[in-house]
């Protein structure tokens, strides 16, 4: 005997279970509910019942009609260091906890790619956007705001939307002060300390440079502009700087302030080939990687608090933190400290 097919659900079945009228169900399913001022909660309940009954709904149409794509977007420069990778992972966890689907895209710090990605995510009606590590986010914020998509700038602030940043200046000051102390403890000259990495006129780089200079000046050392070497973030650029410093008349620095993990890669490459030059140096980095603990040099690292940065970003999006033209500032933490007193000779 042939197996009887299961009867397909109808709008009347949906209406009965959703405790509403068939006409209301029809208006929701055809996308006209807003025009007729049907309560959004009722519309959502109808869609949930429809899905539970196996009624064939075009989910993309559902997103367009209810203005709920269930997508949350994040733009990052790249995944090459733990900071951006950690931000992405923490963002994904928080988004999933809210019942949304995360979409994270790296843009390689290219302005054209950044704009294209933001336009694409907005076209997909993401419910929120966190824009990370973008030099000039104002144009991107305008795209979001014109489309009614809430956005937050993370890491590098903008003027057109709320921002959350690390305390770059304060963290850099603390890191440099510890670096000066460690250099002196080892009998070195703090006036040879150099700042390496980052880009000119970039918010984070300039704030860290100010903290670096202030700590040296408070230690009685008059800072010269050429001590702050903004060579970008590529490892090869940092390695070239190290080669230049090694050839300088004053000799290799007693201490080096590295502005990112990617720049630290360049230092590590140079150190492997020129250990005899680097072995008297104290290393510090405004970025963090646990493997740095295995370096054979005294090492001080500052870890940006990715969990708190994401938490504060969502607090703004949720409205629990008021919109302010000033960025929310999150202090970083010291993670690796090994100086003369606690490193094997």
Task: Characterize the structure shown.
With 345 residues, the protein is of the alpha/beta class. It has three domains: 11-66, Orthogonal Bundle (434 Repressor (Amino-terminal Domain)); 71-161, Rossmann fold (3-Layer(aba) Sandwich); 168-304 and 333-338, Response regulator (Rossmann fold, 3-Layer(aba) Sandwich), CATH 3.40.50. Helices cover 44% and strands 15% of the residues. The protein is built from 13 helices and twelve strands. It has a six-stranded parallel sheet, with helices on both faces. Helix 10 (235-247) crosses helix 11 (261-273). The protein is elongated, with a radius of gyration of 27 Å.
Short summary of the structure?
The chain has 345 residues and is an alpha/beta fold.
| CATH class group of the largest domain | Alpha Beta
| CATH architecture annotation name of the largest domain | 3-Layer(aba) Sandwich
Uncertain stretches of 5 or more adjacent residues: none
Order of helices and strands: HHHHEHEHEHEEHEHEHEHHEEHEE
Largest sheet geometry: 6 strands, parallel
* Number of distinct helices: 13
Beta fraction = 5-15%
| Radius of gyration, whole Å | 27 Å
The overall number of domains is 3
DSSP strand tally = 12
Q: Could you name the CATH topology of the largest domain? A: Rossmann fold
- Structural class given helices, strands, pairing? alpha/beta
Which helices and strands, and how do they pair?
Elements: H1 11-18, H2 22-29, H3 40-52, H4 59-66, E1 71-76, H5 82-97, E2 101-106, H6 111-123, E3 129-132, H7 138-146, E4 151-154, E5 163-166, H8 168-185, E6 194-196, H9 203-218, E7 228-229, H10 235-247, E8 255-258, H11 261-273, H12 275-278, E9 282-285, E10 299-303, H13 306-318, E11 328-330, E12 333-338
Parallel strand pairs: 1-2, 1-3, 3-4, 4-5, 5-11, 6-7, 6-8, 8-9, 9-10
Antiparallel strand pairs: 10-12
């Amino acid at each position: 005997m042939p197996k009887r097919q299961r009867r397909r659900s109808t709008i009347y079945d949906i209406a009965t279970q959703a405790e509403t009228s068939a006409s209301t169900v029809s208006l929701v399913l055809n996308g006209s509910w807003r025009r007729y001022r049907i309560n959004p909660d009722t519309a959502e309940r109808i869609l949930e019942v429809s899905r539970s009954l196996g009624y064939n709904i075009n989910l993309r149409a559902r997103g367009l009609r209810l203005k709920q794509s269930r997508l949350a977007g994040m733009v990052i420069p790249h995944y090459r260091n733990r900071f951006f990778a950690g931000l992405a992972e923490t963002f994904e966890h928080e988004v999933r906890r809210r019942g949304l689907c995360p979409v994270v895209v790296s843009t390689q710090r290219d302005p054209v790619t950044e704009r294209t990605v933001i336009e694409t995510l907005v076209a997909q009606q993401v419910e929120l956007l966190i824009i990370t590590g973008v030099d000039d986010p104002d144009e991107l914020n305008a795209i979001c705001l014109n489309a009614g998509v809430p956005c937050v700038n993370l890491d590098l602030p903008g003027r057109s939307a709320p921002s959350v940043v690390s305390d770059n200046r304060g963290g850099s000051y603390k890191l440099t002060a510890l670096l000066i102390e460690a250099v002196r403890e080892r009998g070195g000259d703090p006036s040879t300390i150099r700042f390496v990495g980052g880009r000119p006129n970039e918010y984070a780089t300039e704030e860290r440079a100010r903290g670096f200079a202030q700590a040296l000046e408070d230690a009685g050392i008059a800072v010269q502009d050429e001590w702050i070497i903004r060579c970008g973030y590529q490892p090869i650029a940092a390695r070239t700087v190290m080669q230049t410093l090694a050839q300088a008349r004053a000799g290799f620095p007693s201490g080096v302030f590295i502005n990112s993990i990617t720049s630290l890669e360049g230092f590590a490459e140079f150190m492997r080939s020129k250990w005899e030059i680097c072995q008297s140096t104290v290393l510090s980095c405004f970025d963090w990687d646990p493997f740095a603990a295995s370096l054979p040099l005294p090492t001080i690292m500052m870890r940006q608090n990715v969990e708190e940065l994401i938490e504060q970003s969502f607090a703004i999006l949720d409205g629990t933190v008021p919109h302010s033209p000033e960025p929310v500032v999150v202090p970083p933490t010291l993670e690796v400290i090994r100086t003369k007193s606690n490193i094997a000779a």
